[in-house]
Specification:
It is a single chain. The chain has 333 residues and is an alpha/beta fold. It folds into 3 domains: 125 residues, Cobalt-precorrin-4 Transmethylase, domain 1 (3-Layer(aba) Sandwich), CATH 3.40.1010.20; 84 residues, 3-Layer(aba) Sandwich (Rossmann fold); 85 residues, Cobalt-precorrin-4 Transmethylase, domain 1. 38% of the residues lie in helices and 19% in strands. The chain has a 5-stranded parallel sheet with strand order 10-9-11-1-12, with helices on both faces. The N and C termini lie far apart (57 Å).
Length: 333
């Protein structure tokens, strides 16, 4: 062994020890993977620019990467010039008025809305058509909530954010109520709100299958599993990512002294990382790419002698089809 290699080995041996519990599942879900793939395939097939209404997913690294390839991100359709190039709707879904406006301008639209968000849209419309007053459990201002509420006329959907909101809600007819939920909520918080709704309105109709998506549920369950063993849980994600913020909450409620959101390795709160023989948990929100997880583990490895343990609580094999216009064989299923 060379003298330099011996030196590195000796320095590494003197490094403080750090255990890393790497949660699985973590990172990209099927809806996010599909949305990103739609932008990439559109750029390959039709060339730049490709216009995307809103961030395709809530992750700056992903958005910047797609922008460098020719994607142009806008907040509203009126920012897009007259064009034959593709216009893509983000994974969060859009209000009914958005595709109508696109159609009026003869835009070539590729809809990257997650199919599980479409499910919530369909439920809201179905309940409204059945004469029920619709409640949406979610966070005000989130793009998914804006899109779901926008499926129905103004005032037809009532937003409930907390258990306290339930006690303040006064429906027109208690016997004709239904609820749906945002797909990226805290499982525990939502369960408490649903229980309060059902207690106050025993006849309220809920979804046939839970609206919180499988990926949100699985990632929260994985964090619950590791949190009691961690001095700190790092959640890789963006500040505007609902599912990532919920993972921080789950970590702290689940027994970790601290949960912390980080976008990149530069955001690691070194003052919270245990100095020796501690344990750090790492997970990633559904819109955070694995390369950012690797970057953070590498940064920890530069300061500590790390031992990484993968903790798997569920296996995921979900995949969603891309739009027909982007398939190599348009007649394929």
């Amino acid at each position: 062994m060379s003298e330099s290699a011996e030196t590195v080995k000796a320095l590494h041996a003197k490094s403080p020890q750090l255990k890393i519990l790497l949660a699985a599942p973590r990172g990209f879900c099927a809806g996010v993977d599909r949305a990103i793939k739609i932008v990439e395939l559109a750029l390959e097939k039709f060339g730049a620019p490709v216009y995307v209404r809103h961030e395709i997913v809530h992750n700056r690294f992903v958005v910047d990467s797609l922008r460098s390839k020719g994607a142009v991100f806008v907040e509203e359709l009126n920012e897009i010039p007259d064009t034959d190039q593709p216009v893509i709707f983000s994974a969060h879904g859009v209000a009914k008025s958005v595709p109508e406006a696109a159609k009026s301008r003869n835009m070539f639209v590729l809809d990257a809305t997650c199919p599980l968000v479409f499910k919530v849209h369909f439920e809201a419309v179905r309940h409204h058509e059945a004469g029920r007053e619709v409640i949406l459990i979610g966070h005000a201002g989130h793009p998914e909530v804006v899109g779901t509420m926008g499926q129905l006329p103004n005032g037809a959907v009532h937003l409930i954010e907390t258990v306290d909101d339930v006690s303040r809600f006064n429906p027109r007819n208690q016997g004709k109520l239904a609820f749906t939920t945002q797909t990226t909520l805290s499982v525990d918080d939502t369960a408490a709100i649903v229980a309060a709704l059902q207690e106050r309105f025993p006849g309220i109709v809920g979804p046939h299958k839970e609206d919180i998506c499988y990926a949100t549920t699985n990632r929260q369950a994985a964090v619950k599993d590791i949190a009691p063993r961690c001095d700190l849980v790092l959640v890789v994600g963006a500040p505007n990512s609902s599912n990532s913020l919920r993972l921080v909450e789950v970590a702290e409620r689940g027994g970790s002294p601290s949960g912390h959101l980080v976008q990149r390795a530069a955001d690691i709160p070194w003052h919270l990382v245990p100095e020796n023989a501690g344990t750090v948990g790492i997970t990633a929100g559904a819109s955070a790419p694995e390369v950012l997880v690797d970057e953070i583990i590498s940064a920890l490895g530069e300061r500590f002698s790390i031992d990484v343990e993968l903790v798997t609580t569920a296996d995921e094999n979900v995949a969603f089809n891309i739009p027909r216009a982007l398939r190599e064989d348009p007649t394929a299923a």
